[in-house]
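> tool_call: predict_assembly(chains=two)
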Amino acid sequence: MRAIWLIARSVLLEAVRRKEIYAIVLISCLIIAGIMSIDFFGLRGLTKFYCEVSLQVMSTAAALTTIALAARQLPREFEARTIYPLLAKPVSRMSFILGKLLGVMLAAAFCFALFMAIYIGGTIYMGGRISPLLILQYVYLQLLGLLILATLAFCLSLWLNFDAAMTIGAVLYFAASIIMTSISYLYDFVGSVGKLVLKASLYGLPQLRLVDLSEKVVHSDVWSPIPAWAIAALTCYAFVYSGLYLALAYISFRRKPL
Amino acid sequence: MSQTSSPIIEVKNLVVEYGQGSKRIRAVDGISFEIYPGECVGFVGVNGAGKSTTIKTLMGFIFPTSGSARLFGLAAGAVESRKRIGYLPEVALYYPFMKGRELLELYGGLHGLTPQELRRRIPALFEELGLKGKEEVLLRNYSKGMQQRLGIAQAIIADPELLIFDELSSGLDPVGRFDMRSVLLRLKERGRTIFFSSHELTEVENLCDRVIIIHQGRIVTQAPVHELLKPLNIFELTFSLPNGKEPPQPLANHQLEKTGDLYRVTIRDVEEYAKAVTELISAGARIVTTNSKTQSLEDFFINLIQAKRS
């Protein structure tokens, strides 16, 4: 366990010292500030518009940051050859991957925490309503979504270089976010091969919309927090997908010549 | 060195191949060797001879195509055996975003050192390796030589029983090489087993008990350094003897020629040479000239590789 923590700490240290997270948060803040400044000729209901766009920007920025962080961990270790002294220590390859994953998740959580602080501050400033339990559920499920993305990016980075893993990870993220809504419309209009592809996508890709409570957070005046069984089911769903991707990454890495 | 105990490193008929199909390359071709506790062994060969591949196999970074590599009786790469190994990679690059102290805390921690042990050990290592005052400097600001010194520090931080160094002197200036030799000598005196590859053959000759020479993936020779060089050393003595006296008996075992009143003897061993001088003086001989031709490991290595190439 100590090895996992030490490796995770080094990932977190890199993320903090490289200042990428701060840059992403700053850019997102500028976008959100731009949205807050729109008046739309004094139209009512702008708070909800602000909340919706802010959460979308934050969620996308956090997802892409997580994919980038996860996708670069292993290729960079190989390219810079820093993996040799690390794996020369009494550290198993499984501990190495788990340490990297934990580090990425800590960095992602740090990034998301910054976003949420800005979001909550902005919402209060705009006079919006905050449901603490719903916010907590939203954050928890978002982190589960980021866990799925991190393991997916790890998996890709073992077969591809950083650029390719990052690009494909981002494409799969957008696909996974879109497929859930469009699949039922498309299904009746495609042939048998198309149906097969859509079914394969449905089960092969994680449905990230399932772990996205942003609409409920925006309309927290009419939505109550979701029940515990639903949270438990979504936790299982996220663990199955992330476990699957992690297992694939480990199988690939276990005997990979360095 | 104790060859009566079990070997620490045991390599048997090791074959390592890279690539697929027609591009498949055999980097290591059926090598076998053993290294015993307390030995300091140099692993020598030209670039591409298979040194780094062998070392990477020992560390479990790559896997044997056939044959076996065992360390401390366990398959190469086993986590248990790595607790007892310090390793310096061929190209030492470390996380540029970390400070020197943080890097050693990471590697020492991975080796199982407690925070108290780290607090005691890290300043001592910075001092020993000539990096004092650089503890809080980011590694991106370290020179290549400083990174190599830090690499050695991370390898020895847990005071392991076995040290495996791939290209020990890579990136070091002459002062750095001298310092590294001192560190290695201290480790050797403390009974640590050392296995290292190097292109600095003077270093190998001075430090190692034994040398293994590898060429095109095969071991061409492995022997104690002095045994390798012994047949190549030549000591010549020219002397004359008082009238009627015959050369002392021990000289008859060596190549002895007589030209007029002068004898010339060629001896290949330094101890035999010293003994012959003593015998001649007590026999009343007059030594006219002495001449010695000794070869270095580098001469031996170059001759061997040229012979292999031709």
